[in-house]
Amino acid sequence: MGNGDIVVRVRMDARTFKRFSRFDTFRLRRRWVRPAGFALILCAFAAVALLSRRPQAGVIAAVLLAVGLGLPLVYVGSYLSQLNAQAQRLGLDLPRHVYTVTLDFDGIRVEGAPGRQETLSVRWQDAPAAFRAKGCVYLYVSPARAFLLPDGQASVDDDALWACLVGHMGDRCRDRR
């Protein structure tokens, strides 16, 4: 470890984990688009059925509205329920050390928590993105894998950490606060 290295000993809690998961699922991967599109289509069909003024049009419209609004609500409810269960399974009720991220001149090094012999090294040019969100930085080392750097846990202040990422990654860093 060099003098200019930034070390983040990440202690994860349920709140940070859930906030990241919602960001990744709904904002970054835009998984809300299909349920919303489904709801809009069925609501449009319900409106067409009502405008037709045929017998039973009200019943058909009610069924279309119930399905069109109900299924997306079930989707979101199921997602949130599974997210809560996963946070509980991971034992995040109380913050715990999950990994250590070191940012140096060459790139990003991630070491697993004590007792886990996992180590990952990624060069700066291979890291696809970093997002600064409320209370945390989401550092993506691949399109499908991110490491969370919660505020106040780095060996430097939060602005210096973000400046380091912007300095190495440039326009692949986006501030979403």
Describe the protein.
This protein is of the alpha+beta class. The protein has two domains: 6-13 and 94-175, PH-domain like; 24-89. The chain has helices spanning 14-28, 33-52, 57-89, 158-169; strands at residues 6-12, 96-103, 107-112, 119-123, 129-133, 136-142, 145-150, 173-175. A four-stranded antiparallel sheet has the order 1-2-3-4. A four-stranded mixed sheet has the order 7-6-5-8, sandwiched between helices. A hairpin with a 6-residue loop joins strand 3 (107-112) and strand 4 (119-123). Helix 1 crosses helix 3 (57-89) and helix 2 packs antiparallel against helix 3 (57-89). The chain is elongated. The relative contact order is 0.18. The mean pLDDT is 94.
Element layout with pairings:
Layout: E1 6-12, H1 14-28, H2 33-52, H3 57-89, E2 96-103, E3 107-112, E4 119-123, E5 129-133, E6 136-142, E7 145-150, H4 158-169, E8 173-175
Helix pairs in contact: 1-3, 2-3
Short description:
This protein folds into two domains: 6-13 and 94-175, PH-domain like, CATH 2.30.29; 24-89.
Biggest sheet descriptor: 4 strands, antiparallel
The name CATH uses for the topology of the largest domain is: PH-domain like
Helices and strands, in order, run as EHHHEEEEEEHE
- The CATH first-level class of the largest domain comes to Mainly Beta
Supply the number of helical segments.
4
Specify the helix fraction band: 40-55%
Question: What is the CA-atom radius of gyration, in angstroms?
Answer: 22 Å
Spatial strand arrangement across the major sheet? 1-2-3-4
Shape from CA axes? Answer: elongated
Strand content: 25-35%
| Helix/sheet category | alpha+beta
The overall pLDDT average reads 94
How many domains make up the coordinates?
A: 2
How far apart lie the N and C ends?
Answer: 31 Å
Could you list the spans in which at least 5 consecutive residues all have pLDDT below 50? none
